[in-house]
Specification:
Structural class: alpha+beta
CATH class of the largest domain: Mainly Beta
Distance between the termini: 21 Å
Number of strands: 10
Order of helices and strands: EEHEEEEEEEHHEHHHHHHHHH
Number of helices: 12
Mean pLDDT: 90
Number of domains: 2
């Protein structure tokens, strides 16, 4: 499977962010093969029809759709024709870390690393135009550099990411409480790092130096689900991803994910999905999501 790497702006700006026109990136988004990237993408479709298979789910794409994609998420585009108009904001996490001094910033954005809600939103034509105008301004600053251009790029990007976060929370009825601490976001980050090796809340409590009760309270308040639910959903996603893309059998996947035996993985999968791994694969291959 191809992994597309981020290339610093062709206009010579030495930062890990760029704005691309969909027509200029036509090849990647007309490609019918599954691929991933090593960067974040926010795609704003002013005009389009079709779908993308992302997180093992098919997301319909129509006019004024916004799609959110995290690094290494496998996706397959099914855009109906060349008659589309979309803009891409692409950046690596280091861009946000360097400029916002917050190592958890991407985990605070509800639409990245999201497993329980769609990785898309539908916005109004007016909202879409405003967002595209902001991206045009960012691109202008990248191309026509001034001493303060990087500060304008940073502020406009920050504004846009937070506006989308507010809209995403509103559409999906997600809480946006100001956190008392960072435990929920740190837990989410640790799941991304250690889900293959650690499958108990106590393991993460130990890493954070807090109790499982504290983790659960923080996660419940911030994401409106339990810490156990978040862990199981992340593990389930990893299993589904391997079933679809790795070419490995259940025994090999169970070994990679440190299940003591394949039967434990299959039992976990059946409890979480109501189907066997074979039934899931059959449905996926038949286009049932």
């Amino acid at each position: 499977m191809e992994t597309i790497k981020f290339h610093k702006s062709e206009c010579g700006v030495d930062i890990l962010l760029n704005v691309l026109n969909g027509k200029d990136a036509r090849a990647s988004y007309r490609n019918k093969e599954t691929f991933n990237t090593d960067f974040f993408e926010i795609l704003l479709f002013k005009k389009a029809s079709g779908a993308v298979i992302l997180n093992q789910k098919k997301i319909a794409i129509t006019d004024n759709t916004v799609i959110f994609i995290s690094p290494y998420q496998k996706r397959k585009w099914e855009l109906d024709s060349d008659d589309f108009d979309f803009t891409i904001l692409a950046f690596q996490e280091d861009f946000l870390n360097d400029f916002f001094s917050d190592k958890l910033f991407t985990y605070r954005l509800l639409y990245f690393y999201q497993l329980n809600h769609p990785l898309s939103i539908q916005i109004s034509k007016q909202e879409m135009q405003k967002a595209c105008d902001i991206l045009t301004e960012i691109k202008t600053e990248l191309v026509n550099r001034h001493p303060d251009s990087i500060h304008i790029v940073r502020s406009l990007t920050y504004y846009l990411l937070l506006k989308f976060n507010r809209e995403y929370a509103s559409i999906n009825k997600l809480p946006m409480h100001k956190p008392e601490n960072n435990y929920a976001y740190q837990y989410k980050q640790l799941l991304e790092l250690y889900i293959k090796d650690k499958k108990r809340i106590d393991d993460y409590a130990f890493l954070l130096g807090i109790s499982r009760i504290t983790i659960n309270s923080a996660v419940k308040k911030q994401f409106n689900v339990t810490a156990t639910h978040l862990l199981k959903q992340r593990l389930l996603f990893e299993i589904k991803n391997d079933l679809i893309h790795s070419g490995k059998n259940v025994s090999e996947i169970a070994d990679d994910l440190h299940f003591s035996e394949p039967g434990h993985l299959m039992r976990f999968f059946k409890i979480q999905t109501g189907m066997t791994t074979s039934e899931f694969l059959a449905d996926y291959q038949n286009g049932i999501f």
